[in-house]
């Protein structure tokens, strides 16, 4: 049975309405089996950058430490903002792991290029072992073990970094084997699946901070993940970025989220 770790961290988000991520995490948690679900305490305060280029670094470090205390192998982490993946990968066994990064945004900024200073926009860069060293993985995941899915809202400073990674488009997902083949080609024996729900097309899913058109279909993505798991075991997974405007709006999106969680768990 899969363990679920609820991490309602909002401090990595650039959004003025970042606190909606807390509501999103609670809405998902309400639909998960209570006996296998643990909700972490996240600091109420925003936190300080501590002289780094990362906003709210002090709070991110506190959540990271709480997540690492609560971690169980193969767990599914529910955000919160999508940088919770970095904290989870820092405690998980990442030897021989590929990372499947399903996200509208590449999250490849560094503290030097980020317009917001928000850590979620630097999350994949930190997975690669770069950026603020109190947060980056050490060692990072090698670039040839990272596959992105549905990335389409790319800042100029990120484009060169994105070109160095294998990418899968929403159209590629129409073939359910595309993800499996790309992960298999990395040579890794296990995979971490990161899903920022903004990877889903806004026509199907409303509850995100920064919607980007021409996204993936939730059912195509779920099918691709099921196919992947038939051959490659999960090291763990993340579902992050759910920011419903209202409790009623949350209900409209929960079907897609539960379909993805069902493919992961
Ligand atoms: Mn993201």
What's a quick, concise take on this entry?
The protein is an alpha/beta fold and 265 residues long. It has a single domain, classed as Ureohydrolase domain (Arginase, Chain A), CATH 3.40.800.10.
Plain-language structure description:
The protein is an alpha/beta fold. Helix 2 (57-70) crosses helix 3 and helix 6 packs across helix 7 (218-231). The protein has an eight-stranded parallel β-sheet with strand order 2-1-3-8-7-4-5-6, sandwiched between helices. It has a single domain (4-264), classed as Arginase, Chain A (3-Layer(aba) Sandwich), CATH 3.40.800. 32% of the residues lie in helices and 14% in strands. Bound molecules: manganese (II) ion. Manganese (II) ion binds at residues 82, 103, 105, 107, 120, 196.
CATH class descriptor:
Alpha Beta
The helicity comes to 25-40%
Number of domains: 1
Distance between the termini: 8 Å
Subunit arrangement of the protein: single chain
Give the count of helical stretches.
8
Q: What's the alpha carbon Rg, rounded to whole Å?
A: 16 Å
| CATH A-level architecture | 3-Layer(aba) Sandwich
Number of strands: 8
Shape: globular
Ligands (ions, cofactors included): manganese (II) ion
| Strand order across the largest sheet | 2-1-3-8-7-4-5-6
Unreliable spans are none
Strand content: 5-15%
**Overall SS class:** alpha/beta
Biggest sheet statistics: 8 strands, parallel
CATH topological fold name: Arginase, Chain A
The CATH fourth-level homologous superfamily: Ureohydrolase domain
Mean pLDDT: 97
H/E topology pattern:
EHEHEHEHEHEHEHEH
């Amino acid at each position: 049975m899969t363990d679920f770790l609820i991490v309602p961290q909002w401090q990595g988000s650039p959004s003025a309405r970042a606190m909606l991520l807390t509501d999103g995490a609670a809405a998902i948690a309400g639909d998960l089996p209570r006996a296998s679900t643990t909700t972490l305490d996240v600091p109420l305060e925003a936190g300080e950058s501590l002289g780094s280029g990362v906003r709210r670094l002090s709070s991110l470090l506190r959540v990271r430490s709480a997540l690492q205390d609560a971690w169980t192998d193969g767990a599914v982490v529910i955000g919160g903002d999508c940088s919770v993946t970095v904290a989870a990968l820092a405690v998980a066994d990442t030897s021989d792991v590929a990372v499947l990064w399903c996200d509208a945004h590449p999250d490849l900024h560094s503290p030097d290029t980020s317009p917001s200073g928000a850590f979620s926009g630097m999350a994949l860069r930190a997975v690669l072992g770069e950026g603020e060293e109190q947060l980056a993985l050490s060692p990072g995941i090698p670039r040839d073990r990272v596959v992105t899915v549905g990335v389409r809202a790319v800042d100029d400073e990120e484009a060169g970094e994105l070109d160095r990674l294998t990418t899968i488009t929403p159209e590629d997902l129409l073939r359910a084997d595309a993800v499996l083949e790309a992960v298999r080609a990395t040579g890794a024996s296990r995979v971490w699946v990161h899903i920022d729900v903004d990877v889903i097309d806004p026509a199907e899913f409303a509850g995100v901070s920064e919607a980007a058109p021409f996204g993936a279909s939730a059912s195509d993505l779920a099918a691709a993940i099921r196919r992947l798991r038939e051959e490659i075991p999960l090291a763990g997974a993340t579902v992050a970025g759910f920011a419903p405007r209202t409790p009623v709006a949350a209900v409209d999106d929960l079907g897609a989220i539960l379909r993805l969680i069902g493919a992961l768990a």
